[in-house]
Amino acid sequence: MNTNLSKRITSVILALAMMFAVLPAGTLSAIASDGGTFGDGLTWSFDEGSGLLKIEGIGAMPDELTPPWGGSSTGITTVEIAEGVTRIGNKAFFSHHMTSVKISNSVQTIGSEVFMGSVNLTNVTIGSGVTFIDVDAFYACENLYDVYFSSAAPPAVDESYGPFDNVASGARAHVPAS
Fold first, then answer.
1. Pairing relationship of beta strands 85-88 and 109-110 according to DSSP bridges
2. Do 172 and 145 form a contact (C-beta atoms < 8 A)?
3. Of 3, 9, 41, 79, which residue has the fewest beta carbons closer than 10 angstroms?
4. Are 44 and 35 in contact (CB under 8 A)?
5. Cross-sheet strand order for the sheet of 156-157
6. CA-CA distance, 148 to 30, in Å (whole number)?
7. 143-174: string of b/e by CB count within 10 Å (b at 16+)?
8. CA–CA separation, 109 vs 103, rounded Å?
9. 3-class SS at 147?
10. What secondary structure does DSSP assign to 41-89, as a single string?
């Protein structure tokens, strides 16, 4: 191989390596967009400044192995499921880095493994419309200390693998007085 060509290729490789070395941590895994559509009639939006991911629209979230906002996205700190959404799909936020979640009153079902492994999650507000929480929904959310229920009647749960297994020691369920 020509010595000059070999030197040029080496220079390009080194320049690329140096460029990637100085990028801030998380740059390559950042959320690819600030919003879009998914499922049947749902939208998502992400505000990078506040870290808020908001799901809106009418209907059920589909089961997503790789959600459109990016799996395990580190920029998301808060998730809000707005009025109109009726179901949170399986694994929708699996191992994400958010610290809080607010689920609206229109949601009826929280799917399986929805927030599983989201170790930074500390608090969740569950709307009064939730009637069922599926298997492992909050499994291994080891810093989940506070779960706020908007209804005095607790939702049904799949008890084969409890939806709140392996959360923080001393976790509290807050239920309004009936």
1. parallel
2. yes
3. 3
4. yes
5. 59-60, 85-88, 109-110, 132-133, 156-157
6. 30
7. ebbebbbbbeeebebeeeebbbeebeeebeee
8. 10
9. strand
10. TEEEEEETTTTEEEEEESEEPPP-SS-TT-TT-TT--EEEE-TTEEEEP
Residue type, 6: S
DSSP, residue by residue, 106-121: T--EE-TTSSTT-TT-
User: CA-to-CA distance for 90 and 81, rounded, in angstroms?
Assistant: 14
Hey, what are 2's tokens?
Answer: 């020509």
What six digits make up the tokens of 132? 């069922």
- End-to-end alpha carbon distance in the chain: 81
How would you write the pLDDT of the chain (178 residues) with one tens digit per residue?
A: 566 655 565 554 554 444 444 444 443 344 446 888 888 899 999 998 899 999 999 999 998 767 888 754 678 999 999 999 999 999 999 888 899 999 999 999 999 999 999 999 999 999 999 999 999 999 999 999 999 999 988 788 877 777 888 788 888 888 988 7
